[in-house]
Design goal:
GO terms for molecular function: metal ion binding. This is Pirin family protein. Pfam families: Pirin (PF02678), Pirin_C_2 (PF17954). This protein has a single domain, classed as Jelly Rolls (Sandwich), CATH 2.60.120. The protein has 2 helices and 22 strands. The strands form 4 sheets. It has a 7-stranded mixed beta sheet. Strands 2-3-4-11-6-9-12 form a 7-stranded antiparallel beta sheet, with no helix packed on it. β2 and β3 form a beta hairpin. The protein is globular, with a radius of gyration of 17 Å.
């Protein structure tokens, strides 16, 4: 078994304002921890809750693959190229910031918060044209098994996933009590497991909502649910 790095939910960094409650698995914004600067090309993994009608004002990004996975509610966005839209549960959006893009994100509802994961991956190339992609995944595609949400651009269309400018793969699964999924981490690769909700067990370790687990090198992961749960897995170089 390769070394495993546990990141308990309660140990994450936090940003809290009157409209935002954000938990940071890795250093982000004003939260800095030299022990948690990222995991391979995975640089940001924030769990955000945004109050009704509120959101992030226009801000810029460059040279980052930014993924958004909504757990509940609806997140709307606009960019300085005239693009706009909404992201709902079961939909993954990728924004390739490339050589630079300005956008805003906000809760599209006036009566309920939006709860989502914001994920940043460092791309394998710099200063490319910005771009968006968004795809909906049917609930049955995630039920009791891994669903490949994102993969390198060269293979994404063939497997029904969103393309990434990085040799990374993002999977998600929704489990009920007694169900389990497995993942083999290849030599020279690493994996990050993130519990979006519920409670799981992996290698004798109980993981709750918001917990993360990093694995470096060859390993066999078996993730078993204690009850209803949703889990994401990043297979990374």
């Amino acid at each position: 078994m390769s070394p495993r790095l546990h990141r308990p939910a309660a140990s994450r960094g936090r940003t809290r304002t009157d409209w935002l409650d954000s938990r940071h698995a890795f250093s982000f914004g004003h939260y800095y921890d030299p022990q948690w600067l990222g995991f391979g090309p995975l640089r940001v993994l924030n769990e955000d809750r945004v109050a009704p009608g509120a959101g992030f004002p226009p801000h810029s990004h460059a040279n980052m693959e930014i993924l958004t996975w909504v757990l509940s509610g609806t997140l709307a966005h606009r960019d300085n190229a005239g693009g706009s839209g909404s992201i709902r549960p079961g939909e993954l959006q990728r924004m390739s910031a490339g050589h630079g893009i300005e956008h805003s994100e906000f809760n599209a509802a006036s009566d309920a918060p939006v709860h989502f994961l914001q994920i940043w991956l460092q791309p394998d190339r710099s200063n490319t044209p910005p771009g968006y992609a968004q795809r909906a995944f049917a609930p049955e595609a995630l039920a009791g098994r891994w669903c490949l949400l994102a993969a390198p651009c060269a293979m994404a269309d063939a497997v029904g996933a969103i393309g990434l400018r990085q040799d990374a793969r993002l999977y998600a699964a929704r489990l009920i009590a007694g169900q389990a999924v497995e993942h083999a981490v290849a030599a020279g690769r690493r994996a990050w497991l993130q519990v979006a909700r519920g409670e799981l067990e992996c290698g004798g370790l109980t993981l709750g909502a918001g917990d993360g687990l990093g694995v470096s090198g060859r390993d066999e992961l078996r993730i078993a649910a204690h009850g209803e749960a949703e889990v994401m897995l990043f297979d990374l170089p």
